[in-house]
Amino acid sequence: MSVSTSIRINQDLYEQAKQDAALEHRSIARQIEFWARVGRAALDNPDLPVSFVAESLASIAEPREQAEPFVSRSLRV
Q1: Which of 2, 3, 6, 75 is deepest in the core (most CB within 10 A)?
Q2: Rounded (5°) CA angle 52-57-60
Q3: Average pLDDT for residues 32-42, to the nearest whole number?
Q4: Residues 13, 39: contact at Cβ < 8 Å?
Q5: DSSP-assigned letters across all residues of 31-53
Q6: Cα(first)–Cα(last) distance of the chain, in Å?
């Protein structure tokens, strides 16, 4: 069960989250949660590029039926 909590955030951050959420097909709240998870994971893994962290977290959240199977570069034609 998910519990909601109201918080105050800067209006500019809200507007950016609103724009990015629309592009990523997320709610504004889910977009901000995603950013928080990326930030936390980036701080926990400073040796990894932030783009890698973000892509990895997005991949984990992707429904399995929408995932594309891995194909090794050596097997690609």
Answers
A1: 75
A2: 125
A3: 91
A4: no
A5: HHHHHHHHHHHHHH-TTS-HHHH
A6: 46
- Find the radius of gyration of the CA atoms of the chain: 16
Q: What is the pLDDT of residue 76?
A: 64
Which sequence spans correspond to the domains of the chain? 11-60
Tokens of 8: 């105050």
Confidence class for position 20, pLDDT limits 50, 70, 90? very high
* pTM: predicted TM-score of the whole model, two decimal places: 0.69
How far, in Å, CA of 13 to CA of 21, rounded? Answer: 12
Phi-psi category of residue 4: left, alpha or beta, with phi > 0 → left and psi -120 to 50 → alpha = beta
Choose among 7, 65, 14: nearest CA to 22: 14
Could you give the 3-state DSSP secondary structure of residue 68? coil
Residue reference for tokens 């918080």:
7
